[in-house]
Amino acid sequence: MKLVKNFRSHPSILEFSNTRFYNSELKACGNAALTRSLENYEELPRKKFPVIFHGIIGKDTREASSPSFFNIDEATQVRKHCTSLIGNRKNSIRKCPRAYHAAKAVNDVC
């Protein structure tokens, strides 16, 4: 059995895996009011494509008592992005006709 319904991700995020590994069988079935809610986030390099690639030059560090490595510079940048996204989301998610119709269309397909 192959799971082909995705309820969490924006269609653009699914696109690569869908074409590369799923023979275009994946369906984006998430609530559009949520999965598309940050398409116009001001820090996106490309609107409607909710992915940010952020290169960091940092240092992998390991605590003496742990076999795992971490990069504090990467973690700090991720935290900044998350804080910004949370602030943006609290201020911008609203039920709007576009999101309603998009969600309805997805639910009709799924």
Order of helices and strands: EHEHEEHH
Roughly how many Å is the radius of gyration?
Answer: 18 Å
Counting structural domains, the number is 1
Q: What is the end-to-end distance?
A: 17 Å
Query: Structural class from helices and strands?
Result: mainly alpha
Task: Specify the biggest β-sheet.
Answer: 2 strands, parallel
Round the mean pLDDT to the nearest integer and report it.
84
β content, as a range? 5-15%
Count of helix runs: 4
Q: How would the global form be characterised?
A: extended
| Helical proportion, percent range | 40-55%
Strand order of the largest sheet: 1-2
Number of strands: 4
Unreliable stretches, pLDDT < 50, 5 or more residues? 93-97
Question: How would you describe the overall organization of this protein?
Answer:
The protein is mainly alpha-helical. The chain has one domain. The chain is built from four helices and four strands. The chain has a two-stranded parallel sheet. Strands 3-4 form a two-stranded antiparallel sheet. The longest helix has 21 residues, at 72-92.
